[in-house]
Write a structure and sequence with these properties.
Helix content: 40-55%
Number of domains: 3
Radius of gyration: 41 Å
Structural class: mainly alpha
Shape: elongated
Number of helices: 6
Order of helices and strands: EHEHHHHH
Strand content: under 5%
Length: 173
């Protein structure tokens, strides 16, 4: 669906041939598809809708190397590097970052890195420590249960008048 804006007619022919020529050159562009506007033709405005979430551009290592070689080939010729950047839709900061990456290493340094928090390799001692802590808690619970049973046995033996002797030293417990 194209949105059109009726901005009016282009300059009338009686305004002079220079002005008509200038107007026709100005009307050539992305909005008109590179064609001169006809008199009375409505001008098509670009869609002003903004994407909901911006999409980050990703460049392959081969693309980066190709652009860097083209930028190096431009040398010091005035305007050539700017023309390359405009044609590719890049910024000068892209080139400087890619050149630093190229100096650090070849193709591997130019590959895109995963964004966000970096995951660290899990330490095997951490898992072992957690397992031992769970086992310690389980054994402590069993020990409390065993001590409770022993206390109950002592109280029952006192009520019944039975003397308990420990097997190793022969004393009353």
């Amino acid at each position: 669906m194209e949105k059109t804006m009726n901005v009016g007619l282009l300059s009338p022919p009686e305004a002079g041939p220079e002005r008509a020529q200038r107007k026709s050159e100005e009307s050539e562009g992305p909005a008109s598809g590179g064609r001169p506007q006809q008199l009375g033709t409505p001008i098509v405005a670009p869609d002003p809708e903004v994407m909901e979430k911006p999409v980050r551009r990703h460049f392959t290592a081969e693309y980066k190397l190709r652009i860097l070689s083209q930028a190096d080939a431009c040398g010091h010729q005035p305007g050539k590097l700017g023309e390359l950047l405009r044609r590719e839709g890049l910024y000068a900061s892209h080139l400087s970052t890619w050149r630093k990456q190229r100096e650090q290493g070849t193709l591997a340094a130019l590959t895109p890195k995963k964004r966000g928090r970096k995951t660290s390799q899990p330490n095997p001692l951490v898992k072992e420590n957690q397992r031992l802590q769970r086992e310690n808690e389980r054994l402590m619970a069993r020990l409390r249960q065993a001590e409770t049973i022993i206390d109950v046995q002592k109280k029952v033996s006192e009520i019944l008048g039975i003397s308990l002797k420990s097997p190793d030293n022969g004393e009353n417990a």
